Structures are given as structure tokens and as C-alpha cells.
Prior knowledge:
mainly alpha; Hydantoin permease; disordered N terminus; disordered C terminus
Amino acid sequence: MAGGGTVTWNTRFGFLMAAIGSSVGLGNFWRFPYTAGENGGGVFVLVYLACVFLIAFPILIAELSVGRHARRSAVGSTRKMAFDAGASEMWSIAGWVAMCGGVMILCFYSVVAGWVAAYVFQMGTGAFVGSSPEAVANAFGELTGDTGTVVGWHSMFMVVTIGIVSLGVTKGIERAVTILMPLFFLMLLGLVIYAGITADMVGALEYLFTPDFSELSGQTLIAALGQAFFSIGVGSAIMITYGSYLKREDNLAQSATIITGADTMVAIVAGLAIFPFVFAFGLDPEAGPGLFFETLPSVFAQMPGGQWVGTAFFTLAFIAALTSSISLLQVIVSFGEEHTDFGRVGSAVFFGAIIFMFGVGAAFSGGFFDVLDKVSGNILLPLGGLLIALFTGWIVSRQLMLTELDKASTAFFTYWRFTIRYIAPVAVALIIIAGLADMFGFPLPFLGEAEMATD
């Protein structure tokens, strides 16, 4: 059975919610605010926006095109498109690399999502109300150090993920996201309004939208490149898989524009939900990863109504994590449906169980967690994106790509063709170089010190 050959999205809205949900992950809430804080605020945002539309957006269009053309799993789709293009079917390696990277991400992503779920519970029960900043910071260390608790939350998250994917593309994924994503947007808007009323929104706006070009550096460029690439969700085979369920009449260029715009908007709006509290309470916007699990919870613990604001904030993050996790699992489930006799439910349970066990390993070993994070984020995902860019830009004929982007204008196709051939490959190669430098600890002349931003 072909992964996408006999299934299509019920509605375009359902597809867009699924695709936006897959892009809107913890990278928008966890990494974007502190990455912006560490890399110059406004100037980072400016470079980030340029990277999104010059690198991530063209690759997103390429992945959707490959999926819809072949209507199979990521591996099957890249293989079939190579065959139809008269190229070597060895180009299916692009699908293999991207799929493996996405699966590896889910192995540790589900652990982080478990932390988020734990914080939803702790915030909701008032566990942090009135606690000192030191006590709140220590609570995160206690949580991550309690392996049994972490595995418990990780198990709950994976059971929910497997359950949704088991129900199918339309009855499971599409139905879930058409409920979760509108709820997500409403809650996010409410949180921003609340931040604007009670905290320092002016300071947040100035910080995010007033670029200080003296802060611009090679590190800013690489951080923005990485954040843009991973935030949109390219390189993980998700968009190839979701594209395989599209109808022929769907406008790929228009859909990709909506997905990219929505994801970018959420990342920036998340900053407007977080930084007003940071500035109102005199906190450091460059606080790093601790901003999410230590600094902000300490703010919620001290402010009036903070219990409910904090609960809403971490519920938003949980929804973002869940919509991303079901898309990551769907990639390997689509492959299982195509290449095994397990069927949908069997594939979801089998591959979900394997991912769960690797997640348990990540919960027990911080070193293993870091290996999964770095190998997937620094090597496999950007390599998958690079291969897709080279494949669709240089191997697949111009005419074949035109048939997939037949509803796009000539100017748009010219823009896409140029960026996918000349800009995206160079930029993604830089991400890979910086990622390898980060992994092996060697300095780069234009960075000083390599540091990646992954989803």
C-alpha cells in the first residue's frame, strides 16, 4: 500500500492546520525567544526573516512537490520522482536521511514534551505559587533528575501521539489538528493581549523590531539560518509525507506561503508573549534555555494570576509539541504502511514503541540525549534538506517541477528555481559546517564559536 496513494486530506484547511502544526513546535516557544536574545534581538529577527524566505521556504515547496508528485512515503516519493526524472533511484537517499533525522528527533523531543506536560500539571495545581526564583529553578533540576517521573510523562506523551496517528490521516491527524490549532492560536493571542496589558510590551517591541547592526556577526547569521531551517520543519520528511496526501488541484505555492507565514508569525508572536514579562521583571533576555523552564516559571510564580497564565503558556507549548510529534511519527508510519504488512495501527504501535524506548534511554542519559539532538539537528536534518534542494534544483527537470507548480506565476517559479539551486544549498551547507564545528569543538573563523539552533 502506498503511504499517500489512496488517502487525501478531507479539506485544505485540515492540511494547512496539520502542516502549520508540524512547523509550530517547541522551536517557536523554547528556542526562538532565547536564540533571539542571545543573538542581538532585532537584528537576529531581521536576518531570520530573510533566511526563512530565501532558504526554508524554497525547500518547503520542493518537499511538498516531491510528495504530491509521487503520493508515497518520503523514501518512496523521492525514489519515484527520480525514476520519473530519468535519474538514479539512489536519490531516494534524500528521503532516507530526512526520515531518519525526523525519527531521531522524536526520540528526544518526546522527552522534552514530557517536561512541558509536567509543567502544565505543576502550574495548574499551583505548585510554584509564591515560590522564590531559586526554588523554581531548582524544581526543574529536580524534575529532570527524577528519571521515573520523566519517563512517566514521556510515556503519556508517546501514548497520545501513537493513539492519534493510529486513527489515520483524516480521522486522527486531521481531526486532531483542526481542533488543536485554532485553540492554540486563540490562547496565544490571549496571552499576548495579557502581556500587553500587564507587562512591558513596549520594551519587547523595541527589542524585537529595532535592529542594532553592531550586534550583527557570523554567529547571528548561522543562528538565524539554523532557526529558520528547523522552525519551518524542512529536512525531516514531514512535508514530503504530508504533501503526498494533497490533491492535484491544490496550489502548492500558495499553501507553502501560508504555512511559512503562519510559522514565522507564531515565532515572533511567541516572543511578544514572553519578552514583556522578561523586561517587566528585569530579567536577562539572553538567559538561554533556562528562560523557558526556570526564568519564566519564576515570573509566573510571583505575579498575580500567574498560576493560570503559566498554565496557559505551557498548555500552548504542549499543543505545539503534540502537533509536531504526530507529524514526525506519521513519516515513519507512512513508510511502514508502504514497506511492511503491519498496516497503520501496527506501524504506529511498532515504530512508536521503538521511539519510546530510545526516549527512555535519553531520559536516563543526558549524554545519549545530546547525541540524538546533535546528530539529528546538526547532520541528518540539514543533510536531508541539502539533498532535497540539490535533487529538485539540479536533478529533476525544470519541466517536471513546472507541472507541480503549475499554478504559480512565472516570476514566482523563477524565484523558486534560483533560490533552490543557488542560495539554499550554500546556506544549508553552512548550517552543516557549523553543526559539525559545534559537535567536534573546532572554531570557525567567521563564528568564533559554533552554536546551533535546532527545533
